[in-house]
Design brief:
Length: about 110
């Protein structure tokens, strides 16, 4: 939770930014109003990429088949792989024998 003018809070469903003008921020608090200026609600793709990034940062691997099952809202065939192919110039794919896919920086 961000405290102070212009601070940003990260919530499970998105981000919110407090009022940027300090006097307006405190005036809002004095009136017992939450001093939110704007927000951004995560789309399904935002949540998916965030999960992939967390897995890569924490475990150095990601099960893309699991991600495809978890975030494929429209049940499209090869949904995740089509999305990730846009990254192809920078990444190459290596498939592990256990059917996990590893991204390798070229």
């Amino acid at each position: 939770m961000g405290l102070g003018s212009s601070s940003i809070s990260s919530l499970p469903e998105g981000y919110v930014q407090n009022i940027t003008n300090t006097p307006e921020y405190f005036e809002s608090l004095k009136r017992n109003k939450i001093p939110i200026f704007r927000g951004y609600e995560f789309k399904n793709k935002d949540k998916m990429y965030g999960t992939i990034i967390r897995n890569l940062m924490c475990y150095l691997t990601v099960d893309l088949h699991e991600m495809n099952e978890k975030f494929n809202e429209k049940n499209e065939q090869n949904f995740l792989f089509k999305e990730l192919l846009e990254l192809q110039p920078k990444w190459s794919w290596k498939e592990h024998l256990k059917k996990k896919v590893y991204l390798v920086w070229k």
